[in-house]
Design brief:
Strand content: 35-45%
Largest sheet: 8 strands, antiparallel
Distance between the termini: 27 Å
Shape: globular
Order of helices and strands: EHEEEHEEEEEEE
Oligomer: single chain
Number of strands: 11
Radius of gyration: 16 Å
Length: 177
């Protein structure tokens, strides 16, 4: 796992966040996990999402909002972009950890989460580690690593931009080659 703070230039990050938080931004209400994990109350299994991009065999979708996330995609510079979406969970009276999952089972894929706002929500991992939601923080990890989001109790919402991709193969160092 790799955690990178202040990943995007401040003006780029703020422009991206402002677009996503704008009044006219299109959101879709969905379940967080389907089927819901045992013990997760139905009222907590709700989030709002916007799918910017998805690519899988026989299917490809690109939202007209895709330019909003191009600065992040360009900086990540993936060989193959698999999926990009933003998740919005609302503040709850108590913290809820939704349930462990993987975003894709695609071999060699990486998951990246860019936190769009600071709050006491976090990303929890199966091994007990966690990454706190800090605005403009990016966490990268193997997409087969099971993880879960946790909602916030101290902000109106938790916003995370989730990207799944195949990274470009590491280039050999010309000095050691």
């Amino acid at each position: 796992m790799l955690v990178l703070d202040d990943y995007l230039a401040p003006e780029v990050f703020l422009r991206m966040r402002a677009a996503i938080e704008s009044e006219g931004f299109p959101w879709h209400k969905t379940a967080i996990l389907w089927p819901p994990p045992i013990g997760l109350e139905e009222t907590y299994n709700v989030q709002f999402v916007h799918g910017f991009y998805q690519r899988k065999p026989g299917f490809r979708h690109a939202s007209d909002q895709m330019p909003v996330v191009w600065p992040l995609i360009e900086r990540l510079d993936p060989a193959i972009l698999l999926k990009a979406k933003v998740n919005r969970t609302l503040r709850r009276e108590r913290q809820v950890v939704y349930g462990l999952h993987v975003d894709t089972r695609r071999p060699g894929a990486t998951t990246g989460i860019l936190y769009l706002n600071s709050n006491n929500g976090y990303t929890a991992f199966e091994d007990g580690s966690r990454v706190d939601s800090v605005a403009n923080r990016l966490v990268l990890f193997d997409a087969t690593r099971r993880h879960s989001g946790a909602c916030c109790t101290d902000a109106p919402q938790r916003l995370v931009l989730n990207v799944n991709f195949i990274a470009k193969a590491a280039q050999p160092d010309p000095i050691s080659a």
